[in-house]
Design a protein that fits this description.
The protein has 595 residues and is α+β, with helices and mostly antiparallel strands. 27% of the residues lie in helices and 24% in strands.
């Protein structure tokens, strides 16, 4: 018999009444009733209530023990009286009458309590993460994460994929985020890089003749933290398939996501066949390529309206003549909203750095009018055209923004979310997936004044590759796609370019010479020149999937040992200084300028 326990803290029930049992766990909390002391003992599995009388020789030991001390308890299982049963606990209809206690480990005064779910400053929670993880909600989040990963592995094997491991020490990538570099002792002055993703390796697996690959892959990027992005490292379901088209990848991922989200959530999946939305349409209708489709608000282009003679809103008309656009959001049946609702949206927009949002409400007396600060500038005929363009009705309201394309996309994307939250029209009881497709192969970089790849440089362009017009690169679409759920991008993917001659041409548009491509992507180009299958894949983020399933807004709530906003591990005190001898071995000399 195990010397610490006969049962865990969630499995005792009425079947065990009158048994002598041993429990081991943390002292969760105490309740002193004078001649009786009640204690909850907690382990990974749950909680059991135990009771000791003041006549027991171990009463004083338990009375002095601080919360989170680790105890071994021997006692007899007894039935709780009906009025003291706790139906919220699996063990809530019994308790253990303590016969003896052994203190296995004493706890100091706690910097944060484990009992209860109070909010505490992030720096304290991260410094004492081992205590934070004992809290019920955090503990459940990490268990959920483990179960999600196990389920993904099982489903991928059912779908015919095999799991392979790719290297952690590799070469630096010229594309994407900053690399984490690792100095080589045996090759002084040279560096490995931790993989931002196993991108080239998983393609090389396809070139090597394997048909379907997956991996729960650690990825490393020296990026700033966000609510949905950890600094330093993250995990993704990396997958790649040979002899596939875009739809084949979609079918696999849709099956996986539907099964996964049904397994771990009772929320409705709005469309089990995920909608396909072109990048261009997404930016027009939602102002972002990460749209939250639970939000019914749509953005409409009203630029043409401001070329009419009977529209007297001169500020916008002048901007339109100089090349700006006007776009609008329609809110349904908001005529009874107070003036403060509209003014608050306008003020909020100014706080975001925009010039504000013009607005009015459509109403009808003898004729159609715009009620609001700028409504007087629109004739009835122009309002009828607006209503036709936007499918607006009397009683609806209109919020306008005017500016350059990227400016109004940004503010109206944010405004769309803000207004929907204020109106409480986002259905939080569903998962709304979609595919964003038809990304442009290239984009114009305003800073460098050059053409660059917009997404993934290894992607296959759409259309007949023999007839690609490389003189008009901004017109070329790629077989690149993102999967989005509830406004969160879960992954980017692509059908890969497996033809070396085409890759040279596409990279030349972005300013790379053949020699530079050979140097930077030597392993990939060399492999593709020996016969490569058409292939494609994607890599959904495990952390973001779990974040959605756990209904958390910050990825640190579903990560075991995350870093803070400054990419510091407060618990392990990383990054840290290293011994000068270690640096000498690596041929590294520090040259840090002091402020």
């Amino acid at each position: 018999m195990n010397k610490y326990r006969t049962h865990n803290c969630s499995e005792l029930g009425e079947k065990d009444i009158n048994k002598i049992v041993q429990l081991a766990g943390w002292l969760h909390r105490k309740r002193d009733h004078g001649n009786l002391l009640f204690v909850d003992i907690r382990d990974h599995y749950g909680i059991t209530q135990c009771v000791i009388e003041n006549s027991n020789e171990y009463f004083a030991v338990l009375e002095k023990s601080k919360p989170e001390s680790v105890l071994k308890i021997i006692g007899k299982v007894i039935k709780r009286s009906r009025e003291t049963e706790n139906l919220e606990l699996k063990t809530g209809n019994i308790e253990v009458s303590i016969q003896s206690i052994e203190v296995l480990s004493k706890a100091k005064e706690l910097p944060i309590p484990v009992f209860g779910e109070q909010d505490y400053p992030e720096d304290i929670r991260l410094k004492y993460r081992f205590l934070d993880l004992r809290r019920e909600e955090m503990h459940k989040n990490i268990i959920l994460r483990s179960k999600v990963i196990s389920f993904i592995r099982s489903e991928m094997l059912k779908l015919g994929f095999l799991e392979y491991q790719t290297p952690i020490l590799t070469s630096s990538s010229p594309e994407g985020a900053r690399d984490f570099l690792v100095p080589s002792r045996l090759n002084p002055g040279k560096f490995y890089a931790l993989p931002q993703a196993p991108q080239q390796f998983k393609q090389l697996i396809m070139v090597s003749g394997f048909d379907k690959y997956f991996q729960i892959a650690p990825c490393f990027r020296d990026e700033d933290a966000r609510a949905d992005r950890s600094p330093g490292e993250f995990y993704q379901l990396d997958l790649e398939m040979s002899f596939v088209e875009q739809e084949d990848v979609f079918n696999v991922v849709e099956k996986l996501m539907v099964n996964l989200f049904k397994q771990f959530s009772s929320k409705k999946i709005t469309n089990e066949k995920f909608p396909r939305i072109s990048y261009e349409e997404a930016m027009m209708k939602y102002g972002t390529d990460k749209p939250d489709l639970r939000n019914p608000l749509i953005i409409h282009d009203l630029t043409s309206l401001f070329t009419r003679e009977d529209v007297k809103f001169d500020i916008f008309k002048k901007l339109v003549k100089s090349g700006s656009s006007v776009r609008a959001i329609i809110t349904k049946k908001t005529k009874d909203k107070p003036r403060s609702f509209f003014d608050n949206i306008d003020k909020w927009a100014k706080d975001q750095g925009a010039s504000g949002l013009a607005y009015f409400t459509l109403e009808k007396d003898k004729e159609i009018k715009g009620k609001g600060p700028v409504g007087k500038f629109f004739s009835e005929a122009s309002l009828k055209e607006l209503m036709n363009i936007c499918k607006a009705e009397i009683g609806d309201s209109v919020f306008f923004a005017c500016g350059k394309k990227k400016e109004i996309e940004k503010i109206l994307s944010l405004a769309r979310d803000k207004i929907a939250k204020d109106l409480n029209i986002i259905n939080k009881n569903q998962f709304s997936f979609c595919w964003i497709v038809d990304y442009p192969m290239y984009e114009y970089d305003e800073n460098s004044k050059k053409i660059k790849f917009s997404h993934n440089p290894f992607s296959m362009p759409q259309g007949n590759i023999k007839d690609l017009d490389l003189k008009k690169p901004l017109n070329i679409k790629a077989f690149q796609y993102d999967i989005v759920c509830n406004g969160i991008e879960l992954s980017s993917g692509a059908i890969r370019n497996h033809i070396p001659e085409l890759m040279y041409k596409l990279f030349s548009v972005a300013g790379y010479t053949k020699q530079e491509v050979d140097e930077k992507f030597s392993g990939m180009i060399n492999a593709l020149s020996y016969g490569a299958p058409p292939h494609g894949g994607i890599a959904p983020g495990v952390d973001r999937i779990v974040m959605l399933l756990a209904e958390k807004e910050n990825i640190r709530e579903v990560t075991l040992f995350p870093m803070n906003q400054n990419a510091q591990d407060l618990m392990m005190k990383a990054p840290s200084d290293v011994d000068e001898n270690q640096l000498k071995e690596l041929s590294i000399k520090k040259d840090i300028k002091k402020n």
